[in-house]
Structure formats: C-alpha cells, structure tokens
Design brief:
Layout (H helix, E strand, L loop, with lengths): L2 H15 L2 H8 L6 H20 L2 H4 L3 E12 L2 E2 L3 E8 L3 E6 L5 E6 L2 E6 L2 E4 L2 H12 L2 H6 L7 E11 L2 E10 L2 E8 L5 E9 L6 E14 L2 E11 L2 E13 L23
Antiparallel strand pairs: 1-2, 1-3, 1-14, 3-4, 4-5, 5-6, 6-7, 8-9, 9-10, 10-11, 11-12, 12-13, 13-14
Length: 270
C-alpha cells in the first residue's frame, strides 16, 4: 500500500470515528450565519416594538375615531391650525372632517376617494388619491400587520442610530420591491420614525417620506402617539395633535361612502 493510499484510509477512519453530528458538520461546507443572525435580531426588535404598542390589542385594532388639531405646511411655513375629526377602519377606509362645522369631508375607501363640500360630492383628483394610497401602503399598520405576514418579507438590522435626538435601533423591512426603515426607541422599543423612498411619478426623482411619532399614551391597551409629524424630503408638510381617540367602536362601512358617490374618473393618459 502506497503512502498516499495509507493516508486516505487513515483520514476516512478518523471521520468515521467522529460522532454522527460531527461527521455531518465535517462533510457540510462552511456557512456564514451572519445574515440569519441579523434577520433574527431584526425580527426580535420588531416583535418588541409590537409588544410595546400593545401586542394583540394593537394587532387587533379594527377601527378608531379621533379628534385632533391639524396644521398644514408650505415651504416650511405653518398654516393656521384647524380642527379635524377622523375615522379609520381596517384595512383601507379613512374619513376626515374639517372646519368647525365639519362641512369639508374627505373620504377614502379602497381604490376610491371623494371630497364633500357645500358644492356637493366630487371625486378626488388622481394625484391626491395616488398620494394617499401610497402612504396607506407604507403605513405602520400595513407594515406590521400585512408586510410581516408576506412570505417574501426580509428584515435587516442596520444597527443603532439617532432618530429625532433619541437613541434608536434601525431596522429595514423589505417586502418585494418595497422597503421601509423603522427607528425604534432603544429604551421603550416604541416607534420613533418611519421612512421610505419612492420615485416621483411626474419628475422621476426619488422622494423620501417620513412619519415621526411622539407623546405616547396608553388608550384601551394600545400605546398611542398623540403627536404625529409628516415630512417630504426633510420638510414638514403636516402636523397633527390628537386630543381624543377611541378604538374599536364598530364603525359602519356606510361612514366611508358618500351619500351621493360620484364615479371615479379614469386616470388621464400621459
């Protein structure tokens, strides 16, 4: 027997002498568990955030009604604050009533949207409806209740960061071509900020949308942000201060359909 063949038999004997588990590890190619470990850490942080928001109470919200004061911004300058009464129903219904008389109403229902004034009911312009639908798709309830259930979802832990002058943990959630960045308070685990990027349909520039949450209060087992700020490319475009909110009132679907709905116009061809 040659020296080379002797060495081969000796090596085989050593492998067979190993426990079965060790033999499997020796036979399997080396793997880098970094991605799996990163994903598990990101998932743990998101789970902590859901529990901080109220756990099952948060995940089972079916509707809510709120009163708030809303401010609109243009070129960084705030307009006069206006009262708003809002209604929301999972997963795609929204209604907001403006002015003290509550006589300006915007309604969104699935793929449709209307504005109701003293002049009557009119469909919302396509750009306004498209903007609302985009924000709804990237809303925190959709991310935590729909995206996370998607079979292709992927989570990435991006490390610690500073968000709104607070220490935070940064997690990116990928849902197919969509992605959103969440910044969770390092101590409370509550969401501080959400950001996502999309391409402007008219100018094809990349735009960054952000929502910032603060002044959390526990309401019916749900940790609720009473202060909400929305930004577009770093500039504040809206601010809302909630004074009252009630969950799971059993809001009827009829609340999200105008009395005399106008058929939606087809989008204009470019």
């Amino acid at each position: 027997m040659t020296a080379a063949r002797s060495f081969i038999f000796l090596l085989a004997a050593l492998v067979l002498a190993l426990p079965a588990r060790s033999r499997q590890q020796a036979a399997a190619p080396a793997q880098a568990p970094a991605e799996d470990e990163n994903s598990r850490r990101a998932r743990k942080i998101i789970d902590q955030a859901i529990q901080a928001l109220g756990g099952e109470a948060y995940l089972n919200i079916q509707d809510y009604e709120y009163e708030a004061r809303s401010f609109g911004f243009s070129h960084g300058k705030s307009g006069i604050g206006a009262p708003v009464w809002g209604f929301w129903k999972w997963p795609d219904k929204d209604r907001a009533e403006f002015t003290k008389q509550r006589d300006v109403i915007r309604i969104y229902n699935a793929e449709s949207g209307w504005e109701v004034t003293y002049k009557g009911t009119a469909p919302l312009p396509p750009p306004a409806l498209a903007d609302f639908k985009l924000r709804r798709e990237y809303s925190l309830p959709h991310i935590l209740r729909l995206w996370l259930q998607s079979p292709g979802v992927a989570l990435f832990y991006a490390g610690t960061a500073v968000a709104e002058q607070k220490p935070a943990e940064h997690v990116t959630i990928y849902n197919g071509p969509e992605s959103a960045d969440l910044f969770l308070d390092l101590d409370t685990h509550l969401p501080i900020k959400k950001a996502f990027t999309h391409r402007d349909p008219e100018f094809h520039d990349k735009d960054v949308e952000e929502d910032v949450w603060g002044n959390y209060r526990m309401v019916q087992g749900v940790n609720t942000p009473f202060d909400v700020v929305s930004r577009h490319n770093g500039e504040i475009i809206a601010q809302r201060f909630i004074s009252r909110i009630t969950y799971n009132k059993g809001l009827p679907d009829s609340l999200f359909t105008p009395r005399n709905p106008v058929p939606m116009l087809p989008p204009t061809k470019q």
